[in-house]
């Protein structure tokens, strides 16, 4: 097939042979395998696994009201969705059917009211059905679910401070407030009654959690009448089958938590000011996010219900450090993992380091590396290599306490811990002695705050931060558009002069084919374009084929194809009216809970195949913002509270995607950790926390996977909109990390197009604003050189597509 044929002609042919791979059995198998490995066994007194002849009663509407993933751009349209009930019936497990029929009828009523899976009300079990279930079995499986989505946080708080082009759209915060009056972090009164009913009526009670984020689990852990707890996450289209596999021992659970589960929302230090203002968010907890807070700050450890990295198995493991060496700025551990139990299983070996407190203050432990074993038979061992570098262990000095604007390895003893979670990791005999303070990388200040007044220290106290002049995120050399009027605009259709099939390109022009064939340079090609053509190139283009998130390129008079984009961190998102169904993979948090980089790459490759087969060029995934607080409505779409786990898993996903010669778009750069008023809220964060926590995963991915594109975020960062932030997009991303791809805006930002281009945001989506760019050029606020730079980046990526 000719280069760009899929982009130029949109052929509806399979990627390989005669059978389409999109939504195929093979890809659904990848989804199910990932869902199985992402399931975390939180509690088990020996009840699990169940025997295949065990009769069960399903308690809770979530047994049929299954949530495959979150809403918004992370949703996927697939052929079918299997609930836990579906998964049990596929194995011919005896289930008390009258109760299932009751739940199905009740849920269908709520769906007709406009409610969505996971945003439905729990219903009381009729007495006759309860008695029937008790007579049928002594084992109840209690199922709970939760749903969240793009554009709102897990609360009833809603911001309506700008023009809304979607006045009839359902208010999810309003529905959330009605169904979860105490917030969906906690059980509702109906759910509490359901759990109590199950515990009172059945000898064995198993809890299954179909949730994409953190909830209060004190009631499950502390109740002796609850025998087992299984966190199945949001496992994609066959998540119910995967859960059934684990419940009945067909698959041994090997997932580990990618977050710390605490008892109350207030236990997370970021909660106090999460909704303090619609206009800003102060990241006062600084680097002490997730387990870095709970394992470091005095007294915080008592708030933990389940620690970061935690997960049980149906077998047991022993890990032993057999060697540790320091060489050329890197510490390398060889660890032997042995299955000491009676059934096959996989172990996740986690390496943590503890840096000396010094002048900068540090978390007591931080994840340094991890590896997952293969499926080990009883008695079988595997040697794993885990590494941590001096750079990884260094701290960013943003106040000049040791060396200003530098990553510093402070003098002292560096300790190392190996184990199965952050709490149980045992200290190794090996220690690394650093005799003197050492500058690892000297940088310069970038994206520093001016309005963050204080930040947390490792003893729980706060230090004052220097303040600066307030910044106006709406500053513009001419009148700003009314906020909201940019929303959902369509890219303009091109008006081209009549052309000839014999000479299809602009007369006298060098074609893009000539660049691809090495007959012309990219500089020569871009140099021939007019200012107006460059302006058009840096804005989104109309949809092509099955695309519904628009395209870029689209210069037929020069032979530049229109490269379509597609949503979907949990799978390729194509509008259902096309008739195309794709594979719904587990949500990102569940993928992170696998702690399996190979599976992440497998998902990336499979998803990338579907993108390419449908003649699209860029998949808008992965989303890698940090789980700063459980309330963030988009946490299901993100991986973890830990930047290293996030970065390594997502880098594997990107590598898998781009093996197809299509692009990944890593998002949202940066600090998109709250959805409420997301297009205006200023994330106010120290430069140290920014670099060590919120940018670190992006840095890992850029350096290890070379993504084709990075997507800037909606929010402002320390007084500048992220897509207009030169320090972020040019200073850090390009100058420090040497990123050479496209930076694209998120769709319909409230940022000014000329400021975005000047900052290094090459492409404005879903559409550009040519008139405003020309106006900026006329005013001397935008130069042709800057436009040419962005144009070359855009065209360079299109050259990578095949």
Please write out the topology:
Blueprint: H1 5-9, H2 25-38, E1 40-44, E2 57-59, H3 84-89, H4 97-112, H5 127-136, E3 139-145, H6 172-179, H7 189-201, E4 204-210, H8 218-222, E5 228-231, H9 239-247, E6 261-262, E7 280-282, H10 291-294, E8 304-306, E9 317-327, E10 330-339, E11 348-354, E12 366-372, E13 381-389, H11 390-393, E14 395-397, E15 406-409, E16 412-419, E17 426-434, E18 438-442, E19 454-456, E20 462-464, H12 512-516, H13 522-527, H14 531-537, E21 551-555, E22 560-566, H15 588-594, H16 597-613, E23 618-619, H17 643-658, E24 663-669, E25 682-684, H18 687-694, H19 696-705, E26 709-712, E27 716-717, E28 720-721, H20 726-736, E29 742-744, H21 753-759, H22 770-778, H23 784-798
Parallel strand pairs: 2-3, 3-4, 4-5, 7-25, 22-23, 23-24, 24-26, 25-27, 26-29
Antiparallel strand pairs: 1-5, 6-8, 9-10, 10-13, 11-12, 11-16, 14-15, 15-18, 16-17, 19-20, 21-22, 27-28
Structure description:
By secondary structure, the protein is of the alpha/beta class. 26% of the residues lie in helices and 18% in strands. The chain has 3 domains: 25-260, Rossmann fold, CATH 3.40.50; 315-461, Immunoglobulin-like (Sandwich), CATH 2.60.40.10; 563-782, TIM Barrel (Alpha-Beta Barrel). The protein contains 23 helices and 29 strands. It is globular, with a radius of gyration of 27 Å. The relative contact order is 0.13. The model has no long low-confidence stretch (mean pLDDT 97).
């Amino acid at each position: 097939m000719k280069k760009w044929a899929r982009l130029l002609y949109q052929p509806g042919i399979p990627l390989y042979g005669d059978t389409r791979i999109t939504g195929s059995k093979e890809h659904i198998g990848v989804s199910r395998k990932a869902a199985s490995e992402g399931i975390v066994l939180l509690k088990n007194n020996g009840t699990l696994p169940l025997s295949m002849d065990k009769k069960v009663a399903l308690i809770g509407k979530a047994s049929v009201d299954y949530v495959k993933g979150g809403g918004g751009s992370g949703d996927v349209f697939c052929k079918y969705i299997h609930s836990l009930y579906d998964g049990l019936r596929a194995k011919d497990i005896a289930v008390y059917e009258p109760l299932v029929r009751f739940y199905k009828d009740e849920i269908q009523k709520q769906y007709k009211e406009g409610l969505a899976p996971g945003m439905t009300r729990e219903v009381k079990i009729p007495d006759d059905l309860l008695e029937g279930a008790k007579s049928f079995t002594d084992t109840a499986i209690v199922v709970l679910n939760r749903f969240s989505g793009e554009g709102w946080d897990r609360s009833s708080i809603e911001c309506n401070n700008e023009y809304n082009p979607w006045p009839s759209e359902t208010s999810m915060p309003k529905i959330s407030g009605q169904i979860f009056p105490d917030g969906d972090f906690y059980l509702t009164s109906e759910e509490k009654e359901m759990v109590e009913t199950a515990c009172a009526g059945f000898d064995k009670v198993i809890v299954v959690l179909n949730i994409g984020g953190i909830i209060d689990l004190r009631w499950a852990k502390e109740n002796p009448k609850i025998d087992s707890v299984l966190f199945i996450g949001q496992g994609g289209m066959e998540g119910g089958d995967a859960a059934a596999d684990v419940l009945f021992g067909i698959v041994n659970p090997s997932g580990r938590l990618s977050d710390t589960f605490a008892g109350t929302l207030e236990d997370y230090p970021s909660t106090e000011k999460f909704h303090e203002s619609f206009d800003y968010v102060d990241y006062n907890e600084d680097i002490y996010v997730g387990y870095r807070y709970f394992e470091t700050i005095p007294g915080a450890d008592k708030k933990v219900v389940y620690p970061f990295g935690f997960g049980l198995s149906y077998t047991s493991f022993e890990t032993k450090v057999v060697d540790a060496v320091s060489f050329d700025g890197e510490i390398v551990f060889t660890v032997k993992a042995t299955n000491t139990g009676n059934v096959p299983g996989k172990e996740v070996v986690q390496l943590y380091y503890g840096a000396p407190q010094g002048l900068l203050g540090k978390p007591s432990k931080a994840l340094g590396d991890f590896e997952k074993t293969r499926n080990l038979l009883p008695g079988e061992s595997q040697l794993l290599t885990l590494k941590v570098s001096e750079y990884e262990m260094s701290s960013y000095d943003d106040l000049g306490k040791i060396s200003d604007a530098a990553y510093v390895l402070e003098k002292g003893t560096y300790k190392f811990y190996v184990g199965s979670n952050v709490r149980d990791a045992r200290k190794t005999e090996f220690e690394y002695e650093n005799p003197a303070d050492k500058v690892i990388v000297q940088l310069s200040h970038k994206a520093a705050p001016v309005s963050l007044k204080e930040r947390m220290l490792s003893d729980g106290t706060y230090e004052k931060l220097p303040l600066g002049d307030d910044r106006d995120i709406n500053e513009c050399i001419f009148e700003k558009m009314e906020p909201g009027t940019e929303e959902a605009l369509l890219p303009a259709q091109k008006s081209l002069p009549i052309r000839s099939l014999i000479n299809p390109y602009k007369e006298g022009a060098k074609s893009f084919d000539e660049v691809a064939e090495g007959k012309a340079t990219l500089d020569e090609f871009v140099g021939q374009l007019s200012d107006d053509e460059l302006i058009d190139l840096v804005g989104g283009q109309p949809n092509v084929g099955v695309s519904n998130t628009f395209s870029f390129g689209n210069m037929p008079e020069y032979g530049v194809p229109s490269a379509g984009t597609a949503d979907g961190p949990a799978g390729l998102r194509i509008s259902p009216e096309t008739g195309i169904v794709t594979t719904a993979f587990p949500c990102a948090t569940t993928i992170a809970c696998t702690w399996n980089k190979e599976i992440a790459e497998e998902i990336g490759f499979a998803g990338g195949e579907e993108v390419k087969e449908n003649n699209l060029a860029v998949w808008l995934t992965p989303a890698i913002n940090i789980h700063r607080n459980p309330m963030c409505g988009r946490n299901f779409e993100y991986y973890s509270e830990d930047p290293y786990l996030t970065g390594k898993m997502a880098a594997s996903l990107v590598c898998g995607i781009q093996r197809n010669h299509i692009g990944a778009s890593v998002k949202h750069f940066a600090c998109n950790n709250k959805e409420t008023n997301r297009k205006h809220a200023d994330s106010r964060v120290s430069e140290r926390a920014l670099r060590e926590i919120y940018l670190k995963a992006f840095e890992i991915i850029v350096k290890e996977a070379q993504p084709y594109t990075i997507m800037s975020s909606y929010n402002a960062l320390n007084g500048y909109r992220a897509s207009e932030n030169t320090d972020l997009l040019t200073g850090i991303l390009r100058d420090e990390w040497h990123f050479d791809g496209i930076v694209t805006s998120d769709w319909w930002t409230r940022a000014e197009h000329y400021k975005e281009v000047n900052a290094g945001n090459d492409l404005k989506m879903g559409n550009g604003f040519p008139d405003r760019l020309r106006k900026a050029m006329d005013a001397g606020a935008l130069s042709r050189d800057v436009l040419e730079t962005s144009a070359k980046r855009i065209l360079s990526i299109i050259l990578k597509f095949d």
